[in-house]
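Pilot study result, target chain (328 residues):
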Amino acid sequence: MAGVRPVPAVTLFLSPFPMKNPELEAIAGRWWYYSVELAPGWRTRGIYPDDMPMLPRMMMRKADLNGMDCLDIGSMEGLMPILMRRGGANRVLATDAVPHCLEKMRLLPEIYRVDFQFRAVGLMYDLAAKLRDFGGFDFINLSGVLYHVFSPMHVVAGLRPLLKKNGLMLISTNVVRRADYSMAFNRGGDFQSETNTFWYLSIPMLEYMVRYFNMTPIDCLYQPAAASEEAGAETQAGYLAVMCRANDDPGSAPPDPWAAQSWAQSWEYRGLCDQDLMRGQARSTIRYADGGPDPAGGIDLLARVAEGPDVVTAGIADSHVLTLDAFS
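Predicted structure:
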């Protein structure tokens, strides 16, 4: 997109000199998003309970990242990039709007003996233009982002061209469990008081958006959340993580005739989703779920959530806690 200039990436790598304990102590006492083990028995305190499931982590474990190029959107201290590298990824790019966790990101590769790159991208729009110099990715994690932006579709439109053909994109976001195609606005903090939270997509809306951007949902996990008093008991909210497979031939499988016409004629689609970059991507060989075949035609997200089971609690390995012995 004209006027977008890539910001140089920062390479985060293991240092030959271990950090002295006073420095470790100082940084450990700061605010942390994730709970991270910095030394045996010495852990930071993140914002989540230890038994709260981290659905994107659980889903990513089923993807074979060995030798793959991976992109993580909204990385915070870098839990997911670390696990990507420990899972065998060839190249990992971590991103965030601003480098607010960069000092902690410099620390963790030393401790976890991995390396990855980081780039601050500003607002999460037009990412294909901002990250074009990195080429394409076999696996993209877009989790915990879409409810924080004014326009979820704009974000996916800008990111989708970076995904290789047959690649995997993990999309995880807050949803409302109802059968229409809509987005519920967090009016007055109805769903949560966090001031950067705007939208809860209905589950069918999320699925349609996935298919509209030339991907097929192949797996999901759902975690229910109690509806707030303001939103009303009839509004069932939750968090949904969806593994999506990129179509080999972008434009070959529209969800309906209207979508096909929209691809061809919509100024938004043609202007925000770089068709040349998307069609020019190489084909990924990334495997999912032990390399078995994807479900034909994908899955119906609303039906799958109704089937259950819901994910309610988790052990440390499936949580927002990163321990020294964790490799997935």
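One observation from the pilot: The first strand starts at residue 10 and ends at 12. A full batch analysis is planned for the follow-on phase.
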